[in-house]
Structures are given as structure tokens and as C-alpha cells.
Design goal:
Layout lengths: L16 E3 L6 E7 L4 H16 L4 E7 L9 H12 L4 H10 L6 H10 L4 H9 L4 H13 L7 E4 L2 E3 L6 H10 L3
Parallel strand pairs: 2-3
Antiparallel strand pairs: 1-3, 2-4, 4-5
Helix pairs in contact: 2-3, 2-4, 2-5
């Protein structure tokens, strides 16, 4: 029996949160959860990919909050989207991973204040769950791509097994880059 390989079901598009050059030859898509300890552990290594291969790797983040095991993950995703609405997704992303055990609504609000977001807008966005559809679309795209847990990485559209560490991801990126 051969292992089933999964492909990215939803193509990367301009609405995705991304770091790195849009024309990079390698795109890494991460489906993640801000309350997931493995995602927190992976976050610095993923940023290191961008440093190690400047201009040659693009990182895309998509939400996949595991609500059944991480009760604050959905609200954290919504807070990240509210920050994104004010061009502060990546600073909020980093703050959430710096504080994965402090993701209750008052704490999320304090991170928004720290990032100097327009708090009237932030509060309205969170109260009205303005970005819930966006997060649900990421989840559905992840499920269609075979995502079951976090973090799940796709490299140029193909799923990458990182169960034994992210070194394999670095090696695969290196192999995908033109010589």
C-alpha cells in the first residue's frame, strides 16, 4: 500500500497572508493554530527559512484552529484577522505565538492595544465576527487539502511530512530551488 499524497486544494492568492517575494520559486503554505504548541515551536524555524533563502521562498499562513482541543484558537485567529484588517497580521501572529497560553479575549484585546490598532474598529470586528467566514474558508480549504492537524506544510502545492522535525522541510526547499 502506498502512502497517499495530498495536494493543496486552494491555490495561493493575493488575499493570503504571506511573507517573502511573491515571485519566489518556492512557496511554503502553513496551516496553523495559534494555540498549538507544535505551531509555536515551528514559528521561528519557518521565519528562519525566509532568512536562509532570501527572495527565494514565500511563506503563506492559513488558519486551521483545532477548536475541539484548543478552546481559544478560533478567537486568536479572529484577532489575527482583525489585525490584518489594519495591516498588522504578522505582528499579531508573532505576539500570539509569544503568548500561546494567554489567548482569552481580554488578552487578545491587550495585544491589539500593544500593536496600536484602532480599538473601536477592533472591538467591532471581534463583536461582529467580521472575519469568521475568512477563517472558515481557510479551514475548509485545509480539509479539502487533507489537513488533519497542525502545523501542516505544503511546499509548492505538495504536502510535506514534518513529523520528525523541520529539517526535512529545509532540505526539500533547498532541493526545489534552481541551481
Amino acid at each position: 500500500m502506498t502512502a497517499r499524497t495530498f495536494e493543496l486544494a486552494v491555490a495561493v492568492d493575493p488575499r493570503d497572508h504571506n511573507l517573502g517575494a511573491s515571485h519566489a520559486p518556492v512557496t511554503v503554505v502553513e496551516y496553523g493554530d495559534f494555540e498549538c504548541p507544535n505551531c509555536k515551536q515551528a514559528a521561528p524555524a519557518v521565519k528562519l527559512l525566509l532568512e536562509r533563502f532570501p527572495g527565494r521562498v514565500r511563506l503563506v499562513w492559513r488558519h486551521f484552529p483545532l477548536e475541539e482541543v484548543h478552546p481559544h484558537a478560533l478567537h486568536a485567529a479572529l484577532a489575527a484577522e482583525a489585525a490584518a484588517g489594519q495591516d498588522k497580521f504578522w505582528p499579531m501572529h508573532d505576539l500570539l505565538f509569544e503568548n500561546p497560553h494567554h489567548l482569552k479575549l481580554p488578552q487578545l484585546r491587550s495585544y491589539a492595544e500593544r500593536l496600536e490598532l484602532d480599538m473601536v474598529r477592533y472591538d467591532a470586528d471581534m463583536a461582529d465576527t467580521v472575519y469568521l467566514q475568512r477563517v472558515r474558508e481557510d479551514i475548509e480549504g485545509g480539509r479539502a487539502s487533507g489537513v488533519r492537524g497542525t502545523p501542516t506544510f505544503f511546499l509548492n502545492g505538495a504536502v510535506q511530512d514534518v513529523s520528525f522535525g523541520l529539517q526535512r522541510l529545509f532540505e526539500k526547499v533547498q532541493a526545489e530551488l534552481p541551481r
